[in-house]
Amino acid sequence: MKNKMKSVPYNASVGHTAGNGIETLTEEKWQAIILNNEAYNRKFFYAVKTTGIFCRPSCKSKMPNKENVLIFDNAQQAITEGFRPCKRCKPTGGPLPDHEWVTQITHYIEANYNKKLTLQSLADICHGSPYHLQRTFKRIKRVTPIEYIQKTRITKAVEYLADSEESITEIAGAVGMYNTSYFTTLFKKKTGLTPTEYRQLNRNKEMYTGDKNDNKK
Ligand SMILES: [Zn+2]
Fold this sequence. Notes:
Blueprint: E1 22-23, H1 27-34, E2 45-48, E3 53-55, E4 69-72, H2 75-80, E5 84-85, H3 98-112, H4 119-125, H5 130-141, H6 145-163, H7 168-174, H8 180-191, H9 195-209
Parallel strand pairs: 3-5
Antiparallel strand pairs: 1-4, 2-3, 2-4
The protein binds zinc ion.
Zinc ion (ZN) binds at residues 55, 59, 61, 86, 88-89, 127.
Cofactor: Zn(2+)
Domain HTH araC/xylS-type: 103-201
GO molecular function: DNA-binding transcription factor activity; methyltransferase activity; sequence-specific DNA binding; zinc ion binding
């Protein structure tokens, strides 16, 4: 049995144990998903572990990796297991409120900030168009998705700088920014300090206060 699954589901509380109405992914069901077969819409729903979203078989969203798919008898079971309804195919019948959708997107960013993220890849994963995603996200969060990604990365970098001895290059990579000079520029723009200055300042503060975990905002 090969196990090449590397990605971690964003919702660690989702328990994939048997006996929760989770069905087997048969070849027939997999074909229905691949072919967006509407005839199967009343027969099952499928959830994707890596995105935390569930869909109707007919959904035109990006095809998931087969090993990340879970099958449910009905929408309620998927919700109980911690999955959220897809914005595009609306597996619960009603439209997904924009707030819910934006929450899905922020969850995804927070769990995947260390990977390559673009507006297009977010739109694919969260089942919407880049244009709609940009507008809706900005309206609700008051920042663009890209700004939110940057903010998340800098917040994580601040933690790494305070709590680890890793180099600036390693920390930049750990927050998904492989261009160290761009990372330094962005960090300074957001915090007013370079990463090295921040680390130095934090160390000095620890010396005076003796507080090792002074991460208060
Ligand atoms: Zn869908």
